[in-house]
Amino acid sequence: MKGGRLRVGVLGATGVVGQQFVARLAGHPWFELAALFASPRSAGRRYGEAVRWQAGGELPVAAARLPVRTITPESPPEDCDLLFSALDAASAEALEPACVAAGLAVATNASAHRLARGVPLLVPEVNAAHAALLDARSGRGLLVANPNCATVGLVAVLAPLAARFGVEAVQVTTLQAASGAGYPGVPALDLLGNVLPGIPGEEEKLEREPRRILGRLAGGEIAEAPIVVSAQTHRVPVIDGHLLALSVRLGERASPEAVARAIDEFGQPLAPLALPSAPRRLLRRDDAADFPQPRLHAGGEGGMTVAVGRVRRCPLLDVRLSALVHNTVRGAAGGAILNAELLVRTGRLGVRR
Ligand SMILES: NC(=O)c1ccc[n+]([C@@H]2O[C@H](COP(=O)([O-])OP(=O)(O)OC[C@H]3O[C@@H](n4cnc5c(N)ncnc54)[C@H](OP(=O)(O)O)[C@@H]3O)[C@@H](O)[C@H]2O)c1
After folding, report:
1. For residue 193, how far is its CA from the centre of ligand 1 (angstroms)?
2. Which of 50, 77, 156, 236 has the most neighbouring CB atoms within 10 Å?
3. Residue of the nearest CA to atom 32 in ligand 1?
4. What does CATH list as the number for 6-148+333-345?
5. Crossing angle between the packed helical segments 202-213 and 149-164, to the nearest 10 degrees
6. pLDDT averaged per 10 residues, the chain (length 353)
């Protein structure tokens, strides 16, 4: 890569998603972890002391030694080129634009600016072309967002269907993992041996974000896809992996076999770019009657593939199936890192001079 590795910081580094960033950035060929930020509760301590490590494996030694810093809209970091944001939406609201105004690139997981004009909401295999929204910006700073974690699984499996047959309507029911609520998240006594219906704000995101992601870039704006989504969400006592059960009305009739073939043939549209975090395939489909399961299949290709199964005829709409996405990886940190890699490879993001 020209110009050396980019210096990156993680906002919300002590949280569930922040830890995934730290884990995935250790040894990254293009990005060097330079700074870690969290709330004033954690600031002032070494990361290894401040964090309750949940991301699996060993906490990377170099990260453990870094001091945890705070950040305010008045003090964007000067020692970073790129920030990965795992802030809650309320904190992201003012902080992220302040960092962009200071010339930084921000790749965010927070929902605060996902639908803002000029902000690409990306799942790179699905809508990499939307990155061109950034080309109209005036300054050097930029903001790129990844979608809600369950939305990522939904649009991943809808993408080949939309391209081949068109998609008109979707009914989706989700079973979402505990880690999706962050740390410490939902109290154990509420969730263990139980299912909690209705995750605040989640159904609205599932119903709106796919329209934008599957929309068309025209004249510097996104023309949203006219897809109607009806979503029902549930929190379940699973650690990682959001399972989605969906029924789809297609634009043109297709057999379950033709739908399965479209999913199998989707492959990896980004392969020519050789992005370090891209899996060999976005979608992994299996014919087993009980596929996919969060505990067994959420971690495919390091959590970067979406597992798809049970493709069959739907007596109500046209076709129904199940999809599984690793919420903290493909649905969060892994997706954001892939977004940043796409921007680097397409010349939109580089070392700040
Ligand atoms: N969990 C998922 O699967 C998932 C998936 C996709 C997107 N997201 C989104 O990613 C973001 C992070 O989620 P999470 O699950 O990682 O949450 P989390 O575990 O609750 O972590 C939140 C992080 O934000 C920090 N923080 C809180 N208030 C702050 C402030 N005022 N200033 C600076 N830092 C502050 C916390 O620091 P302290 O430790 O010091 O309090 C912590 O590092 C959210 O926007 C969420 O919606 C999450």
Report:
1. 26
2. 156
3. 39
4. 3.40.50.720
5. 40
6. 83 98 97 98 97 96 98 96 97 97 97 96 98 93 98 98 98 98 97 98 98 96 98 98 98 98 97 98 98 97 98 98 98 98 96 76
